[in-house]
C-alpha cells in the first residue's frame, strides 16, 4: 500500500507471532522433530523465538537467519536455497542473507 509518500507493509503482531510458534511447535512434535522457530516482523526484527527441548544449539541462529532471509527476498527461504543449488552460488556472498 502507498499514499504517494510512504509505502506501508502489513506486519504480524506479537499475538499472531506467538500463535505461529505454537502451531509450528505442534507440527514439529507430530513429526517427532526438535526445532527452533523464529518469527520476525516485516523489517526482519525478531518478534518471537522458541527452541524446543532437544533442538541443537546451532538451530537458533539458523531459524533467525531463515526468517530474516524470507523477509529480505519476500519469499520462503527455500527459494534462496534453490537459487544456490541450481547454479547461482554467488548468492552465498550476498550480505545479510543466511543460508
Structure, described:
This protein is 42% helix and 11% strand. 13% of the residues are buried. The protein has one domain (14-93): Beta-Lactamase. It is of the alpha+beta class. The model has no long low-confidence stretch (mean pLDDT 86). It is built from three helices and two strands; from the N terminus they run H-E-E-H-H.
Taking pLDDT < 50 over at least 5 consecutive residues as the criterion, the unreliable ranges are: none
In N-to-C order, the SSE pattern is HEEHH
Tell me the name of the CATH homologous superfamily: Haem-degrading domain
Strand tally is: 2
Q: Using the coordinates above, name the CATH class.
A: Alpha Beta
Provide the domain count: 1
The main β sheet shows up as: 2 strands, antiparallel
Q: Over all CA atoms, what is the radius of gyration?
A: 15 Å
Keywords summarizing the entry:
Beta-Lactamase, two-stranded antiparallel ribbon, 42% helix, alpha+beta, 99 residues, flat
